[in-house]
Write a structure and sequence with these properties.
Chains A, B: GO terms for molecular function: metal ion binding; methylmalonyl-CoA epimerase activity. The structure is a homodimer. By secondary structure, chain A is an alpha+beta fold. Chain A has 3 helices and 9 strands, in the order E-H-E-E-E-E-H-E-H-E-E-E. In chain A, strands 1, 2, 3, 4, 5, 6, 7, 8 and 9 form a 9-stranded mixed beta sheet that branches. Chain A is globular, with a radius of gyration of 15 Å.
């Protein structure tokens, strides 16, 4: 079911500072910061040869990463996202296997314009896991 | 400097249970567990189309992931590893930029038989970051 690793998301308290570290110190190809108010984050993409890392800074009062940064004020690894061919089939299989899908259980359109869902980290050995339809 | 994402490492308290989740529930290609006593971990590789995820369980009394699991008993995202062309040149550049290399500052041979180093997470916005020479 899991195909490519789509991205690894790192929460950071200051996205411009983090972008500068990846661009200037680590020598990576780094996008401009993009505000996604409907997702409650500002995002920067670190483009690697085979996948990407997403830097996420909270945006707005109800950001989904605010609690994580309150607990990890310096930032840290927030979630991992895998691609699947069919998000509804994946969801049905995983729910039948006893996994919990966050939210109302239905895939929603994610930050890349494709259907996504998040699995409860307690069902994936502590790692917040996103699935995205290719 | 950063080339491919080599792996994402997830610490887990029970590697056989985690391997079963990735193999049977998430439908991934998963290796047999391999004990690496010189690195203080048992490792399972989850092979994706473009990279791999490593599941790590502590091995022995001085495992480098024991403290992480004591703080995150259900497991969680432990570190991210990028490939670089020349680990010594990378180290020299990063140290000159003010980053701290863990341990004695010298690259050592990692779990894949290649030279690696770890950057202090406090210098990489909270994420423990490994570099591996290709």
């Amino acid at each position: 079911m899991l195909l490519r690793l789509n991205h690894v998301a790192l929460a950071v308290p200051d996205i411009e500072a983090a972008a500068a570290t990846y661009r200037e110190t680590l020598g990576a190809s780094v996008s401009q910061a993009e505000a996604l108010p409907e997702h409650g984050v500002t995002v920067v993409f670190v483009e690697l040869e085979n996948t990407k890392v997403e830097l996420l800074e909270p945006l707005g009062d109800t950001s989904p990463i605010a609690a994580f940064l309150a607990k990890n004020p310096k930032g840290g690894m927030h979630h991992i996202c895998y691609e699947v061919a069919d998000i509804v089939a994946a969801r049905d299989h995983l729910v039948a296997s006893g996994m919990r899908v966050l939210g109302n259980g239905e895939p929603r359109i994610g930050a890349h314009g494709k259907p996504v869902l998040f699995l409860h980290p307690g069902d994936v050995h502590g790692t917040l896991t996103e699935l995205q339809q290719v």
